[in-house]
Amino acid sequence: MDKFVCLEGLVAPLDRANVDTDAIIPKQFLKSIQRSGFGPNLFDEWRYLDAGEPGKEDSLRRLNPAFVLNQPRYQGAQILLTRQNFGCGSSREHAPWALLDFGFRALIGESFADIFFNNCFKNGILPIVLPAAEIDALFVLVEATPGCRLVVDLEQQQLRCPDGRVLSFVVDSFRRECLLNGWDDIGLTLRHADLIRAFEDKRRIEQPWLFA
Amino acid sequence: MPQTLYEKLWQDHLVHQQADGTALIYIDRHLVHEVTSPQAFEGLKLAGRKPWRVSSIVATADHNTPTDHWDRGIEDPISRLQVETLDANIRAVGALAYFPFRDPRQGIVHVVGPESGATLPGMTVVCGDSHTSTHGAFACMAHGIGTSEVEHVLATQCLLQKQSKTMLLQVDGRLARGVTAKDLALAIIARIGTAGGTGHAIEFAGSTIRGLSMEGRMTLCNMAIEAGARLGLVAVDEVTIDYLRGRPFAPKGAQWEQAVAAWRGLHSDADARFDRVVEITAEDIRPQVTWGTSPEMVVPVDACVPDPANEADPVRREGMERALRYMGLSPRQPIREIRLDKIFIGSCTNSRIEDLRAAAAVVQGRKVASNIRLALVVPGSGLVKRQAEREGLDEIFLAAGFEWREPGCSMCLAMNADRLEAGERCASTSNRNFEGRQGAGGRTHLVSPEMAAAAAIAGHFCDVGELLGRKEKG
Ligand code: SF4
């Protein structure tokens, strides 16, 4: 996993609540057995005017000019600003894979759905939760400031705005460590292999029916 | 200290806890399907790691598999590759059980697990699928995980977790005629919202829940994720134990007795404290129909589509307006006047034998309305299908004009050929009415199996309670 320490990047606003993972990456693209290549189909049904299918050449498709990520001012955005309950619905990790492949490294919202939130950290994406009033203010700022860039500083747990405002956020300490260092969870867990084995042996004796 | 059921399950699976509360939780059962596992097996291989305990794995192919013409195999080459990749991975590592495409016991992973007895009380159950919450009906700590976590469980038999908060959903009273566990689930989501359960484990308790069958409890826990909760729970009682007795992977003989004794302790203590309590009166609930593109956009069948003009919050108002545009509905339109194009009875929410019986009882002796282009019944598993056929339910559906299909996820998410075309409107017993969920541009209304059956007959929504009443009088 790539480290995440500090990022300075362009912000794109997606002013909707309850953006679900079906919208982030529609089901037909889940047939892939790869982890990459999902970026062109991020928000597929909103981004394009015609229906997308795996194998179709996306660069030849008609873009929906009304969709925010298609506007010239947001090209190259690395930070996505959104509302409540982003990433609800299906557990598909293809959603963070698609966001990452498109170029997003940080998400800022009022709340995120549990499984999606978790999946982000496994892929080096930082989801930041802020109170509603601060989210409102950020939407105003981003709309009003062409080329609005934010500094996302995970080390300091700070968001620095171009107008000098500094917002602080909190990330669970273990997840923060993992992101800052780009650690692989599995490797960390396997350091406890002896504990897992001992737990399992005890369980096998106490509740043998679980090991049939 | 008195404990909630969730706290007991957490304690029982705790391998190790760090100072910040992050814990290593042991996983008893790992359910695997073709869509969310290939990258995990690949990752394992690339890192040169071996699966920790393959006897925890129960696998099946369900999302991509066709529901008709099984003799032709899987015609879509990309779907076929995904299913073949699962075959190859399971063949290479092994499993407690594998129900491949066309196996008589193949089906939706959340139907197959419980019916085979692979889901047992007190287990941790995970799957790369959000509706793993279904298994909480058996007092299991069961939740969906992403593909990286699938790999983590394969490699370590554990997950890194933080303890959730607890919510008690206390439901008391009797559900009215034609009101089901599905209506209860939708009414709960209407009450607490799709993010209402975020960060919580919801325990469903009260006399109404005790009165539900295991199928009903599974429907309810299945929808817990739509309320934002990662997991739903119901305590063990005689209904649970009766359901499990004699299932292929349930313990036998002396071990059964030993297990049952342990399972009887799987309930919250009388004075356990919950972080949040919500009380619901069963008598207040009417059959529910969603009108929008989120499960919380739901009203009783005798109500009208709400008017965004009455919504004070601007983000919500805009969400409602967008949903109405997508759904092709206008404010204040009576739900009963919404005419339908397709009917889907299936999915891990409502495709078990009891669901099919209830739908068949509505359909019996009637015909699907002429405006319905396609009415599908897709049983949750091969075993459900054969049971239904033994009871003659297939004939009831076929005589009415329904199609009777092979098991799988089907039009719940339309990864196979079963889907809505743009603009088509469907009464569906599945769990998600998101934009494009059942096909790009498709319009989904979530309902119970009885309500879907009644809508098929009427051609539009109607109160199934009334329809059943008329049937008895007539
Ligand atoms: S039936 Fe639908 S919700 Fe259930 S596992 Fe299949 S796709 Fe997911």
Description:
- Chain A has 212 residues and is of the alpha/beta class.
- Chain A has a single domain (6-181), classed as Alpha-Beta Barrel (Aconitase, domain 4).
- Chain A has eight helices and seven strands.
- In chain A, strands 4-3-2-1-5-6-7 form a seven-stranded mixed sheet.
- In chain A, a hairpin with a 4-residue loop joins strand 5 (149-153) and strand 6.
- Chain B has 474 residues and is an alpha/beta fold.
- The longest helix of chain B is centred in the N-terminal third of the chain and has 17 residues, at 77-93.
- Chain B has helices spanning 5-12, 38-46, 77-93, 109-115, 147-156, 181-192, 207-210, 214-222, 238-244, 253-263, 314-327, 353-363, 382-390, 393-400, 449-458, 464-473, and strands at 14-17, 23-26, 29-32, 57-60, 97-99, 124-127, 141-144, 158-161, 165-172, 200-205, 231-233, 276-281, 288-290, 298-300, 342-345, 374-377, 403-404, 425-428, 443-446.
- Chain B is globular and about 55 Å long.
- In chain B, strands 5-4-3-6-7 form a five-stranded parallel sheet, with helices on both faces. In chain B, strands 17-16-15-18-19 form a five-stranded parallel sheet. Chain B has a four-stranded parallel sheet with strand order 11-10-9-12.
- In chain B, helix 2 packs across helix 5.
- At the A-B interface, helix 4, helix 7 and helix 8 of A face helix 2, helix 3, helix 5, helix 10 and helix 11 of B.
- The site of iron/sulfur cluster has 13 residues of chain B, from loops.
SSE layout and pairing:
The complex is a heterodimer of chains A (212) and B (474).
Chain A: E1 6-13, H1 21-24, H2 44-47, E2 79-81, H3 94-102, E3 106-109, H4 114-121, E4 126-129, H5 132-144, E5 149-153, E6 158-160, E7 166-168, H6 173-181, H7 185-190, H8 193-206
Parallel strand pairs in A: 1-2, 2-3, 3-4
Antiparallel strand pairs in A: 1-5, 5-6, 6-7
Chain B: H1 5-12, E1 14-17, E2 23-26, E3 29-32, H2 38-46, E4 57-60, H3 77-93, E5 97-99, H4 109-115, E6 124-127, E7 141-144, H5 147-156, E8 158-161, E9 165-172, H6 181-192, E10 200-205, H7 207-210, H8 214-222, E11 231-233, H9 238-244, H10 253-263, E12 276-281, E13 288-290, E14 298-300, H11 314-327, E15 342-345, H12 353-363, E16 374-377, H13 382-390, H14 393-400, E17 403-404, E18 425-428, E19 443-446, H15 449-458, H16 464-473
Helix pairs in contact in B: 2-5, 6-8, 12-14, 12-15
The structure holds iron/sulfur cluster (SF4).
Residues 62-63, 108, 110, 129, 131, 347-348, 409, 412-413, 430-431 of chain B line the site of iron/sulfur cluster.
